[in-house]
Design brief:
Length: about 500
């Protein structure tokens, strides 16, 4: 699809939206997978002055109808989940909960509820004059960014178009995408990172290749055949892709940048990416609330850092500036090296749709655990709410996971807390064996003991086939804990005194 064809479709859909009654400020919820129509729907909503909200394609009926009601969406653009036994069940739920909302169907027949067809709305109007877009003003809300909701219902962050452009410029300044670049995107456009990367590719004049569902073999094929130059992915994506690459069949010589975010990168995986793909890396840490830090420095990324504080204090004093680490209970700044909650400096409050603002004291508290070294490098160690409380000592799962991933017999690893009558919570290391090896608990404790304190060593080991992850690559700990319990518990247990 050319840029001209893309814009013709944006104009056609925007005209159709107006005929359907979409007005400036209305919310349009887009549940499409990665496809050209998602890009079109996003830009058509803006051309009408409406607010775009993207979400996961695999939401159930109750989840989707709750979300439509939560943001008071006037339009839902819907695409059935792949291989769903009842493809339109979520649509029926939306009709029941929000009978006034307009449903636009993509790749699905009408259910009899008066839905519109996206294909028909995209139809050209012969002789129609060029459309006059009515974009939201730079300071008006143009996006609702849904938080991941891993600890409850998602919140909807209100973002202006000015804020959206500024964040994309921040990324663009880091790796300078241009008209000669080919971007492969399998990260979901329903989430903020995938949305920004898709628009960044087009705003810089490049070519955007969309994959609606990640497959290592398909991603490897597209990198080779489309001569991809920019490849975003989560750590798990890169690990699987590297395993699928065959030098005899896949050409990765055009790659110049990889982009990663959302989850921790082990040193071994980073080194494999540099060695195998011969490309630089942009490593991003941030949140839907629009706070971000990043780095392209090899030594920082290999060392596990997500970048530096813009303004670091003299040695021995708490860092100040755009980012700091504080005590979670009272937000007192901590000196370099101490672990606490990561906070971003906020020039203005974070606005949520019909919910209280945050960052009203000049800082946004992320709920992430981290530290800043004396040189200002930032390290993310997981979520505070995910800490395992082992006998009163709080242990970060991410720290253990990154160390375990360095073991040659471990292909992937995650940690969950399990109930324990003595400790309160035990540390259960869930490991995916690498190759034919089956690592044992004693072996892993000995290995981890070289870099971790004794109270951080796992009490239990569960060998699993795969680590469940969310759409943006984070460990799905509730699902993992349930899977371990359903399998009869850990493979091995140890209760050291």
């Amino acid at each position: 699809m050319t840029y001209a064809e893309l814009w013709d479709r944006v104009e056609a859909l925007a005209r159709s939206y107006r005929r359907l009654g979409v007005r400036p400020g209305d919310r349009v919820l887009c549940q499409l997978r990665n496809c050209p129509e998602h890009v079109i729907a996003l830009n058509a909503a803006w051309a009408c002055g409406a607010i775009h909200a993207g979400t996961d394609n695999d939401l159930t009926g109750p989840e989707l109808s709750w979300l439509v009601d939560r943001i008071d969406a006037s339009v839902l653009v819907f695409q059935p989940r792949p291989a769903s036994p009842d493809p339109l069940a979520p649509v029926h739920a939306v009709h029941d909960a929000r009978p006034g909302a307009t449903v636009v169907l993509h790749e699905a027949p009408p259910s009899g509820g008066g839905e519109a067809s996206l294909a028909e709305l995209l139809g050209a109007e012969p002789g129609a004059p060029p459309m006059e877009p009515a974009y939201p003003s730079p300071e008006e809300t143009g996006l609702l960014l849904l938080t991941s909701g891993t600890t409850g219902r998602p919140k909807a962050v209100m973002e202006t178009l000015r804020g959206c452009w500024a964040k994309m410029q921040f990324f663009a300044d880091a790796f300078l995408p241009g008209p000669d670049d080919v971007h492969l995107l399998f990260l979901p456009m329903g989430h903020v990172f995938g949305l920004r990367l898709s628009m960044l590719a087009l705003l810089s004049g490049g070519r955007l290749v969309l994959l609606d569902q990640f497959s290592p073999s398909e991603a490897a094929r597209l990198v080779s055949e489309e001569q991809v130059t920019v490849l975003p992915g989560m750590p798990t994506h890169f690990a699987l892709l590297l395993d699928a690459l065959d030098p005899a069949h896949h050409d990765v010589s055009r790659l110049r940048w990889t982009v990663s975010a959302a989850a921790s990168l082990t040193r071994g995986l980073v080194q494999r990416i540099y060695d195998t793909l011969d490309a630089e890396m942009l490593y991003v840490y941030g949140c839907s609330e629009n706070f971000t830090t990043l780095t392209t420095d090899r030594e920082e990324i290999l060392g596990g850092s997500v970048g530096r504080v813009v303004f670091a204090a003299p040695a021995g004093e708490p860092p100040t500036g755009t980012l700091r680490v504080v005590r979670p209970d009272d937000h007192t700044p901590l000196p370099p090296g101490e672990v606490g909650e990561i906070a971003f400096g906020a020039r203005r409050p974070v606005h949520y749709w019909r919910a209280p603002d945050t960052a009203v004291d000049g800082w946004y508290y992320t709920g992430d655990l981290g530290r800043i070294d004396p040189d200002g490098r930032v390290y993310v160690l997981g979520r505070i709410k995910e800490l395992v409380n082992r006998g009163g000592l709080k242990v970060s799962p991410t720290e253990i996971e990154m160390a375990a991933a360095r073991h040659p017999a471990v292909a992937d690893a995650a940690v969950v807390g399990t109930p324990d009558p003595v400790l309160g919570e035990a540390i259960c290391l869930c490991a995916v064996p690498s190759g034919d090896g089956r690592p044992g608990l004693a072996e892993l404790r000995s290995f981890l003991g070289e870099s971790l304190a004794r109270h951080k060593l796992p009490d239990e080991l569960a060998l699993v086939e795969a680590i469940p992850r969310t759409n943006i690559g984070k460990v799905d700990r509730p699902t993992l804990a349930a899977a371990v319990a359903a399998a009869g518990g850990p493979t091995e247990r140890l209760r050291p005194l």
